[in-house]
Amino acid sequence: MKRLRTIFLFLSALAAARAASAQLDVHLSTSKAGGGRIPIAVRDFRLERADLRSASDYIVGVLLDDLEFTDAFAPVRLQGGADSLAGGAAAAALVEGSLGWDGSRYALSVSLLDFVSRETIFGKRYLFEHDAMRAIAHDLSDEILFFLIGEIGVAKTRILFTRREGEVKNLYLVDYDGHGERRLTEGELVVSPVWLDWSRFCFTSYRRDNPDCYLMDLARGKRLMISSRVGINVAGGFNPASDELVMTLSLAGNSEIYLMSPGGELGRRLTSNRAIDVSPVWSPNGREIAFVSDRYRSPQIFLMDRYGGNARRLTSEGSYNTAPAWSPKGDLIAYAAREGGVYRLRLISPDGLYRETVFDDAVSCEDPSWAPDGRHLAVTARFGGEPWILVVDIDTGSRRRLVRGEAAAWSPLPPEK
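Given the sequence above, the corresponding structure tokens read:
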């Protein structure tokens, strides 16, 4: 979606004298119609010791990558003490800081400045161990995005996905930028991962030759089977307000939608139809559920209230629409629409008045999953027959290959410390 937005810089009134640590409210609204980005300069950190150079380069490098990944900024690195951009180019802001050593930990003092006036927008001090360097850069990137644009950053999020390996599909976890990949299951056929919160998620596995639903808790290192009923047991989404999963079960042979507790206690049945009802997802406010049904002969996206009432068809174009994913902002539902042999990534508003096809080229996009910012999507795209996790920015249309795999599930934000 090439949303029309206007570039402007708002600076609140400044006191005549402001301490270096004072904070200034700054918000940049960006226009992405032409793929434009806001220039931001990142200066190499001043070093208290020469042997800190490699650590400084690493943190700055990750920060630059994070700012680029936002699709909102055009970061430029200032090296060798440079104080201005090449050719006298302007920037919205400047990141600078100093890296030192505090006992057994790194100490990073960093500031975000208005590029022209050099007034301080915010300043922070981080104390951290060696293995936290990447996390510090992610945190700083998210802070910059919030202070300059007022948007939520996703640099600290993670993505679940599956990867076919021979006759099985194992479950993997990776940082939002493709770093730190690790395998979570071994020798299983796993499908449909879905997050409950920062550390818990559900997935369906055929390890016992039945599609059973499991809950895995990363923080506790535990795995629990929560639904092993004969037939399909697939979690579609979680509503934290009511502590309920919305599930696809086939208790009587036909796929229907139910509510279930994370502990596996079966709740209300929401659909009762001869058709196949699958792929349920909660709206962000927990009041509605989007799902897929073929009650009109072909798979279409439907909406119903949280009690199963007021079911209504949402999609009216095309004969094969699946995999709804409700934006965390609540304004859009992403889904996959089949056209010939290609799946199109489409967006639709819950009232059906707004509709858009994100791409109309030969790239096939399936199984969309929203980032917490409501701007980026992880989808399954196939290149040369090989599935990849592709990150899509709906504002700019940019696409980025992340890792080889499919069925991505983008995590929520981590809890605030």
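The helical segments are 53-69, 133-149. Try to locate this feature in the token string yourself.
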